[in-house]
Design brief:
Oligomer: single chain
Number of strands: 14
Strand content: 15-25%
CATH superfamily of the largest domain: ATPase, nucleotide binding domain
Number of domains: 2
Order of helices and strands: EEEEEHEEHHEHHHEEEHHHHHEHHHEEH
Helix content: 25-40%
CATH class of the largest domain: Alpha Beta
Number of helices: 15
Shape: globular
Bound molecules: adenosine-5'-diphosphate
């Protein structure tokens, strides 16, 4: 079954055509700078195996971007299909499913309306997700479209972990609570870890206690007990929790009114400050990219070192908290750009966690191979420390197939 996976952001449209029969990524790419007509024009980057094409093309909106994606998939040289009829379903990443969507669903008009309603909770993410759905439906109108939500995996979090200690009416009136994000990634890597723990160590999946650390540009950490998310660091929005590329993570909430007053900022400006000018970028004053932070540290840049230390310390603190929340931990999983490729960060995070049973092997930690899973703990360590490359697109494609087969079964 060939499934087209679409992840539509405010100025981008990422796509991946997956053949689930062979677990093969036939083509993938990104339409970038969609709708932005400032200095650089929009471009399409398209990959088929090792071959990459990148070209500028006018894309004033996501409909035009989708048209370009369709064109490139059918193109005699760059394309991988002869007719759109080869695509059997489309899976869409949708960031916020609110309290209503606890799993993936077939998209109909009612679901579109509900996604629109959730936009109040995710004003930056859900509107472009919905535009992506509408654009894809225009070109691929006769096949099922499925929504896979970033929040869904966290729908098992109990109230004592999702309710904030604010006046309860705010939850009732505005649904202010912890939702959590990156759910597709935490789901994928925790499933892989559960399988490994069962096969290698005989730990039954339902008893497993796993902490998954998704460390990319956005970062979040999840406590997965018996396969279910029981707590996660991102909250009402993705700004809570860990230090990220440009987001602050946990801060004293009273800082917000204080800086609004002292710096004379509007709500939108303070939101920008917390989400786009903080984190590694805010502390270092230079970059949101961990590779650059590492380079600056090597040159003796003290602020870069401070950013690195704060980043790693925050992850370590959460690991301790989640081990306490679950009454122990069998495995800690690192994923995302930093988690998968950053031995320095993994080492700094794990240092001092020996009391929990964490003991990483420095050589194994250094020698992980890009794109491959690895157990980087010492043989005799009580807690396994795993590096597992995430694959959100595969989860979306598989979820799409599952929902479609349920639908067919019910006809
Ligand atoms: P996104 O959250 O946008 O999907 P990624 O998961 O690709 O982002 O992660 C991007 C982050 O991963 C950047 O901070 C980047 O510096 C970091 N990263 C990528 N490769 C390495 C590496 N070899 N060492 C440390 N950090 C890395």
């Amino acid at each position: 079954m060939k499934v087209l996976v679409i992840n539509c952001g405010s100025s981008s449209l990422k796509y991946q055509l997956v053949n689930l029969g062979e677990y093969l990524v036939m083509a993938k790419g990104i339409a970038d700078r969609v709708g932005l007509q400032l200095y650089e024009s929009a471009s399409l980057t398209h990959r088929v195996n090792e071959r990459v094409w990148k070209y500028d093309v006018d894309m004033p909106d996501h409909y035009k971007a989708m048209e370009e994606v369709v064109k490139v998939l059918l193109h005699p040289e760059m394309g991988v299909i002869k007719s759109l009829e080869e695509i059997e379903a489309v899976g869409h990443r949708v960031v916020h499913g609110g309290e209503r969507f606890t799993g993936s669903v077939l998209i109909d008009e009612e679901v579109e309306r509900a996604i629109e309603e959730c936009a109040a909770l995710a004003p930056l993410h859900n509107p472009p997700n919905l535009t992506g759905i509408r654009a894809a439906k225009l070109y691929l109108s006769n096949i099922p479209h499925v929504a896979v939500f970033d929040t869904a995996f966290h729908s098992t979090i109990p109230p004592h972990a999702y309710i904030y200690a604010l006046p309860y009416q705010l939850y009732e009136k505005h649904r202010i609570r912890r939702y959590g994000f990156h759910g597709t990634s935490h789901y994928y890597v925790s499933r892989k870890a559960m399988k490994y723990l069962e096969e290698r160590f005989g730990i039954p999946p339902l008893d497993s206690k796993i902490i998954t650390c998704h460390l990319g540009n956005g970062c979040s950490i999840t406590a997965v007990l018996g396969g279910e998310s029981v707590d996660t660091s991102m909250g009402f929005t993705p700004a809570e929790g860990l230090v990220m590329g440009t987001r602050c993570g946990d801060i004293d909430p009273a800082i917000v009114p204080f800086i609004i007053e002292r710096e004379n900022l509007s709500p939108k400006e303070v939101d920008d400050l917390l989400n786009k000018r903080s984190g590694l970028l805010g502390i270092s004053g230079q970059t949101n990219d961990m590779r650059d932070i590492e380079e600056e540290i090597a040159k003796g840049n003290k602020r870069a070192k401070l950013a690195f230390d704060i980043f790693c310390y925050r992850v370590k603190k959460y690991i301790g908290a989640y081990a306490a929340a679950m009454g122990g931990v069998h495995a800690i999983v690192f994923t995302g750009g930093i988690g998968e490729n950053g031995p320095m960060e993994r080492e700094a995070i794990c240092e001092g966690l020996e009391f929990l049973g964490v003991k990483i092997n420095p050589q194994k930690n250094e020698e992980t191979i890009k794109g491959r899973e690895a157990d980087i703990s010492e043989e005799n360590a009580e807690v396994r420390v795993l590096v597992i490359p995430t694959n959100e697109e595969l989860v979306i494609a598989e979820e799409t197939r599952r929902v479609v087969s349920l639908m067919k079964g019910s006809v």
